[in-house]
Amino acid sequence: MATNYLNVDSIINSVDKGDHNALNDVPLLTGNISTEKSNALRNALTHSLIISTPETLDALNSVDKLIVLNGHSPVRDKFGTDSVCSYVIDSNKYDKESFMTYYSIARLHLEKTGDKGKSCLDLMSSSIEETIYQDKQGKMKWGVEKYGFD
Fold it and tell me: CA-to-CA distance for 80 and 149, rounded, in angstroms?
């Protein structure tokens, strides 16, 4: 069960691999996870978006419904469509090539989902446009790590 604190790391690792059952548990974690673990879960959802796109979108949609029902919270909001789809990957940690490759892969997968992925793709594209603009202005500081796409 997702609410068992001892299982949080296991669920995060499974979400990172695009595991469908773990993705179903994501909404159960939104009120029962530490700030530190919430960052790891958001990163796992971001990775899962390029592995199990439709199932990840379903998990994000379920969290969005919880946000509507229960209101915004700093932790819960990290797992909704707005946050995960606009966050992409951490540009302070990963290099520009990884960042842009992630976007290319995510865009292709989201396009394949049609209407289901449209709002996520729109948010991501807007975020990428802003990042590209900031980069052209010389205001972006890129990380040095390569993103693990597998």
Answer: 22
Helices then strands, counting H and E runs in the chain, come out as: 7, 0
Contacts of 120 (CB under 8 A, 6+ apart): 49, 57, 60, 81, 84, 85, 110
Q: What is the pLDDT of residue 91?
A: 93
Q: What does the alpha-carbon distance between residue 12 and residue 34 come to, in Å, rounded to a whole number?
A: 12
- 35 φ/ψ angles, rounded to the nearest 5 degrees: -60, -45
The predicted-structure confidence for 32-72, as pLDDT tens digits, reads as follows: 788 889 999 999 999 999 999 999 999 999 999 999 998 88
> Which CA distances in Å does 10 have to 15, 46, 107?
9, 17, 28
Q: Residue 50 and residue 44: Cα distance in Å, rounded?
A: 10
Contacts of 65 (CB under 8 A, 6+ apart): none
pTM: 0.91
